[in-house]
């Protein structure tokens, strides 16, 4: 549609990117989360399905990275492998240097399907409290964490409601509060706002930025929404189409203070958005980074 | 006000039916159909005396023990079989076989094996009541939502905590549907287990009345069985509403959407 602009953005963002088929690696050993040569092949009745071919990237402690990719690029598979819900076929995931073999204690996951990730038989407060109770945390400490978490997501007024009595956006807030109260070091989010309406979505995006800054937690945010990835992330990891590798690892050099109106109006935002969009389009047509063409 | 209205609704049809019955027995003198007045008098005189202690209470006690045991065994076994894949593959054909055997045919066999005892009667009740609870629990456990299960897993909820906070509540609606069937089967089997060879109990007494042409007494026995059924149903509904409040609320919200 706008070939001249695309050319321009291509030039302007080429400085901070990695296009070798792998993402950025922390060479100083300070990676909070490391994904190394991860491969996942499903055995199905119809034969093998290679969902993820070879993924390598690191997340620094306290980083907020977004993972975008065309649909069917194995985003959810990757997240399941990282969260220890699924074993990779090859490669490994390291959390703070330790290999992930099952769901690690330092990790929390927020799923897209808020209606199916909260316990419908428990009230909001009980839902947030359950993981802590299960750890055997003392009541006083538990109450404080739950109060703080509910306060942080703006739901202090509904602790006695059941999740299904709340709107979709509020339910997802409960799921976020549950993750926050759990005090994870890494927070994984699997397209958490894909099923909420646009206005709620903007609020929730800002909520994630706020929570992230306040807690200093490492966040890996999976999304298919290009705008969202650029607006939220300090970094965007673009996946190729299936079989999946890292198409590009892009630094988002937008100011740290972001807001829905001004940040999205910045020329730099538009440039980055164009660039990511273009890469996704390339990925869809099967273009792969030169170094990974093997 | 709502409670009064509810009671009026609940009593309206029974009252009408009794009135109809009364009107149709006016002026007739059928040996086999007593008038409401006769039946009430016979009921009081037959059941409110010694028989309450010697027949009614033992029957209810056996029913209670049998049904409770069936529910507990059914849920525990169902949780196990539903959670362990190989156990399910191993037991499924056998369960289908035993479920297909009508429990009344077991009564003579159990009599021979266990003697004519309370234990035999309780076993007959269990052998018929357990299946809906067991099979529904297995299905309920299998139908746990994948996302919910993943959520629990990522938060380290496993073992007994998983059963308590995830599996049991999630399978709750199906388990209770099984319990509802279990209760009505239990009442039937209670009577049948007492009809074959027994010296006490409601089933035994009603058969005695039939054989001695004590027609109003026999009818009064049938009435008491019906009343026990109604009481069980009320207790069940009350309990079910408390346990599954979340489920009914969720369904209402889903249906409204």
CATH class of the largest domain in chain A: Alpha Beta
CATH topology of chain B: MetI-like fold
CATH architecture of chain B: Orthogonal Bundle
Helical segment tally of chain A?
10
Task: Pick out the low-confidence regions of chain A.
Answer: 1-16
Head-to-tail CA distance between termini of chain B: 30 Å
Q: Classify the helix fraction of chain B into a percent range.
A: over 70%
Q: In what range is the share of β-strand residues of chain B?
A: under 5%
How widely separated are the two ends of chain A? Answer: 31 Å
Q: Largest interface: which pair?
A: A-B, 27 and 22 residues
Q: Give the count of structural domains of chain B.
A: 1
Structural class of chain A: alpha/beta
Order of SSEs of chain A, N→C? HEEEEHEEEHHHHEHEHEEHH
Structural commentary:
The complex is a heterodimer of chains A (294) and B (257). By secondary structure, chain A is α/β, with parallel strands linked by helices. Chain A has ten helices and eleven strands. Chain A has helices at 3-13, 75-82, 114-117, 124-134, 139-152, 168-181, 198-215, 226-232, 260-265, 267-284, and strands spanning 17-18, 31-44, 47-60, 64-68, 90-95, 98-99, 107-110, 186-190, 218-223, 235-239, 244-251. In chain A, a hairpin with a 2-residue loop joins strand 5 (90-95) and strand 6. In chain B, helix 3 (50-83) packs across helix 8 (159-195). The interface between A and B is medium-sized, with 27 and 22 residues.
